[in-house]
Amino acid sequence: MSAIEHHAILESAKALHREGFKADYAETDREGFIKFETLHRLANDQTSIVSIMQANNEVGTIQDIKKLAEIAHAKGALFHTDAVQSVGKIKVNVKELDVDLLSLSAHKFYGPKGVGLSLFAKVQK
């Protein structure tokens, strides 16, 4: 993940760390874009999942999720994207993005507050 993920992702990573999992944080450039080289370097055959938000709610950066997912998949990892800020504003198509998991929040598209949604786009064997 990156260090600029939503606190829900960062806190989940901290909880997993307490359970013995390792978390790595990909650096971003000045505009908040994930450096592809960093993800190539950090992800390896021990990487279970990569989680990168599609659109950052603080700086407005829209990541190249398709490319980041491609890197994660090449390393054997699942790819999750937090699309809470992007759905309803830009095109979000799980097949085109080639993500395994995608999270949304209903209140961002006129649904009830407090209702979330996780799509399991693909089943890995």
Outline the structure in words.
This protein is α/β, with parallel strands linked by helices. It contains four helices and four strands. A four-stranded mixed β-sheet has the order 1-2-3-4, covered by helices on one side. Strand 1, helix 3 (65-74) and strand 2 form a beta-alpha-beta unit. The model has no long low-confidence stretch (mean pLDDT 88).
Topology:
Blueprint: H1 7-18, H2 36-42, E1 49-51, H3 65-74, E2 78-82, H4 94-97, E3 101-105, E4 116-120
Parallel strand pairs: 1-2, 2-3
Antiparallel strand pairs: 3-4
Q: What's the mean pLDDT score?
A: 88
Give me the count of strands.
4
Please estimate the helix content. 25-40%
Shape: globular
What key attributes describe this structure?
125 residues, four-stranded mixed β-sheet, globular, 4 helices, 4 strands
Summarize this, please?
The protein is α/β, with parallel strands linked by helices and 125 residues long. It is 26% helix and 14% strand.
